[in-house]
Amino acid sequence: MGAGLMPIISAELVHAGGNPAAAELEQQLLSGQTLLSETSDHLIEVVDVLKSYGEVLDAYSINLIFQAEQQFLLPFPFFKYLDGDKKPAKIWRHLIHDRINFEYAEYCMKAMLWHGTGGLDAYLDSDQFAANCAAIIRRKTRIDPLLALLNPLFRGFLPELIRTAATTHALGQFWRVMSDLFIDLAEAEADGRVGSIDAVVEFIKDGLVAAAANPITYGVEVDGEHFWVLPPEAGLTFLVDVAVPYVEAVFLRGMPFLGTVSFNAQAQQIPPDQAQFAYGALFADPLPSMGAGIPPSLLMQDMFRHLPERLHQWYLERTRGEGDVRVKICMSFQKSMFCVTNAAIRGTFPQPLSSSEPAAQAANRAYAAAWASRLAKARTDCLD
């Protein structure tokens, strides 16, 4: 390449900074420092991209809960993305794709369902859940001849659909809280209550802690009778049973993207153990955004449609302007997810960080070290 010519792919898009070692990340967590560096640009990126994300999550949450409650065990849920609005104008907008990409919400739900970690998954494997499923299936097959035919042939089919619906509803409840939290964060920044990355992390941490004990329940109506799928006595709560499994499945493990890694078992590019997966939001390369087979592209498009003007103008002044705006949204989103992870870690330390007790300090060090060892392999170059 001749001197003075711009590279085809700018260095900023390939590598944004250094990669801190696990020991450095551990010390940052223990000292209460933020993972993302304190800059005015980072504040704009994180607050505004989370505001956009919050508006998108509002739509995702409403639709997931609608699907779980109103499309429950429907053999052909053709209208599941319409939220009950079957007007011709709504159907037309759906067909021409002038809509939110609810497929990405389902993608995240399937990641949670497949990785299956935490209290929610443990309950879905319990005898009580199996009994609830059996009662629901008995009533449903009385009124649905197709399901009555399928159930004896494929005994695991309907319980798996109910398991999927339970995960769908739980994720909808989780995103309801997160949507409100991110929009509240933008309002707090606008009125001056939040003015730094540390304040962002603290605001999110406080929101997570406040919602930690929120009960996660889910019931359905079948032929006029109410059935519990996730009953109150299961004792499922927001933070431990849904938020933590979500972070594990979507932020950390994720799923490999088509076209970026070989699915040929002989190539051995994908670990045989799901616990070793590192394809989540904190690990993914933002550059392939909007490429074929890259599910987060759907989210980037949704956030672009809800992008605050301040952040939009900030993007226009950098690299290719509008040309790579969705890649830049993905980069900002990754930074914001490090802040959310930072807040979750800060709010779940086993002991107060200010404690001087040796046992408490040892417990916190072990907790921070476990997180740092995983985060050190993530895209921490964006944190500078």
Overall radius of gyration: 22 Å
Distinct helical segment count: 15
Largest sheet: 2 strands, antiparallel
- How far apart lie the N and C ends? 28 Å
| Spatial order of strands in the largest sheet | 1-2
Number of strand segments = 2
Weakly predicted, low-confidence segments: 1-15
Helix-strand topology string: HHHHHHHHHHEEHHHHH
- In helices, the fraction of residues equals 55-70%
Backbone structural class: mainly alpha
Mean pLDDT: 92
Number of separate structural domains:
1
What percent of residues are in strands? under 5%
Shape field: globular
Name the descriptors:
single chain, 384 residues, mainly alpha, two-stranded antiparallel ribbon, 15 helices, 58% helix, 3% strand, globular, disordered N terminus
What is this structure's SSE topology?
Elements: H1 11-14, H2 22-31, H3 40-70, H4 88-95, H5 102-115, H6 118-124, H7 127-143, H8 145-153, H9 157-190, H10 197-211, E1 218-222, E2 225-230, H11 238-253, H12 296-305, H13 309-316, H14 325-347, H15 358-375
Antiparallel strand pairs: 1-2
